[in-house]
Fold:
Amino acid sequence: MQGVQAALTGTTATNADLQNISQDDFVRTAVIMLVGIIIVLIVITRSVSSSLFIIASLVLVYLLLLESVKS
Structure:
């Protein structure tokens, strides 16, 4: 059995691959979106610290709501 390769196919393997790709795309999109929002907030508020505080509070609320939905 040397040199034998095994691979999974079918709907389950396809769904697992799509889920992994979707997760990676979501993280990439979220990072790009947050950076864009921070830049816009810095331009609007003319303050880096207040812009970071606004983003940090929004991310914290998002994570807390996400955790409350899971439980």
